[in-house]
Give the backbone structure.
Amino acid sequence: MSAMLSIRRLTIDDLSWAMRLKTLAGWNQIEADWRRAIALEPTGCFAGEWNGAPVATLTTCVFGPVAWIAMVLVDPEHRGRGIATSLMRHALEYLAGRGIASIRLDATSLGRPVYERLGFRVDRELIRYRGTPNGGELNSRPPKCEVRRIEPDDWESLAALDSAATGTQRTRFLHALGDDGGGWTARDDDGTIRGFALTRAGSGGVQLGPVIATTEAAGSELFRAVIIDLGGVSIVVDVGMDHILANQICRQIGLTVERKFLRMTRGPSINEASCAVWASSGPEKG
Ligand SMILES: CC(C)(COP(=O)(O)OP(=O)(O)OC[C@H]1O[C@@H](n2cnc3c(N)ncnc32)[C@H](O)[C@@H]1OP(=O)(O)O)[C@@H](O)C(=O)NCCC(=O)NCCS
């Protein structure tokens, strides 16, 4: 059966059918997300064709010894034929060729068995919240620290905070997100940056994330300031189930649980400081 499947590079010429698959799955990405994925890993984004018709996608992104796999989508009419498994094997070979040790992804419940058979194991659960924040208690108390828009000189500190929290050197991804959306830092009184937040547009709501913060004041203040700045729009935010404070804030501001993801890794575990990760960047790259 796999003789009918061919795999080739995914390019920006594929965006219209790739967006259709994304929409059928009910996901939040927009064209800018595909463009960013392809720009970050031009040789590592793949299209699956069944009898010559494009029916499946997968993207990879390499950050030094760690890589992320995302956008694993198969046309509903072509599921259950081994297409996702074949695309995954193809991507794993590509990443092996790049010398990658650890491969990560955020799995839906549909994807989990496919990945488990390929040697991925569950690290933890992420909760996706959605809603239009009401400000809640966050609006009624004085700020705990200063939050302001990211300035060009801030990026070095942000990258250091991010890699200490995530165990991944993903500066080029953060820059690309910064170019596409909004960004804020939280600072101590002496100006030391203790956290940052990025946002980007989505088809069903603004994605808030990553939010990385090393103090409680910075994390809660970033949520507060960003939500006030965004002003009454619908947002989507992915929070680790074990991050009690971030989950509390999401509930306080009136967001509701939409779905869950499983963060999975194949190969050596990554040394993370998950308490500093108040919100994931979204399911594409941790
Ligand atoms: C998850 C998803 C990508 C799987 O795609 P798929 O091409 O159907 O996956 P596969 O065919 O490789 O595997 C799916 C099932 O078909 C079975 N299968 C694989 N090859 C097969 C074959 N040749 N004949 C019959 N069944 C087969 C697999 O054993 C698997 O069974 P199980 O999951 O019930 O244990 C697809 O359901 C999808 O796009 N879902 C929506 C988006 C999504 O959730 N993506 C995952 C993000 S993490």
In short: The chain has a mean pLDDT of 95. Residues 1 and 60 are 25 Å apart (CA to CA). The radius of gyration is 19 Å. The first helix runs from residue 15 to 24.
